[in-house]
Write a structure and sequence with these properties.
There is one protein chain. By secondary structure, the chain is α+β, with helices and mostly antiparallel strands. The protein has one domain: 2-Layer Sandwich (HIT family, subunit A), CATH 3.30.428. It has two helices and five strands. A five-stranded antiparallel sheet has the order 1-2-3-5-4, covered by helices on one side. Strand 1 and strand 2 form a beta hairpin. The mean pLDDT is 96. The chain binds adenosine monophosphate.
Length: 113
């Protein structure tokens, strides 16, 4: 269950995180293994295991996560940044609680691996 992931533990305050933003619907914190000078994760408080578990009832929440991602990027001083959502292990998902990566602060190549 998504609430039992390490991100669920952060949401419940059981383990610390390097928080950069928080509200009633989401939490944003610095990635422990940053892939760029700025690497923040935005996660919903609702325990969705991935984007593929979301449905139309989550439309507002998903929009909110993206707006928070942009807000965090601005807060971190980024004009240019990348948002990434990995869904499933073959796509690189390792923590099964939906999260939006916000990455920037250096030139970013495309396509990703
Ligand atoms: P993904 O591979 O898309 O599932 O992304 C999971 C991300 O969570 C990775 O970038 C990890 O570095 C990050 N991560 C794992 N554990 C922690 C933690 N305790 N604090 C912050 N970030 C973490």
């Amino acid at each position: 269950m998504a609430g039992d992931t390490i991100f669920g533990q952060m949401l419940r305050g059981e383990i610390p995180c390097d928080e950069v933003y928080s509200d009633e619907r989401c939490l944003a914190f610095r990635d422990i293994h940053p892939q760029a000078p700025v690497h923040v994760l935005v996660i919903p408080r609702k325990p969705l295991e991935s984007l593929r578990a979301a449905d139309s009832a989550d439309s507002d929440l998903l929009g909110h996560l993206l707006l928070v991602a942009a807000r965090v990027a601005k807060q971190e001083g980024l004009d240019d940044f990348r948002t990434v959502i990995n869904s499933g292990s073959q796509a690189g998902q390792t923590v099964f609680h939906l999260h939006v990566h916000v990455i920037g602060g250096r030139p970013l190549a495309w396509p990703p691996g």
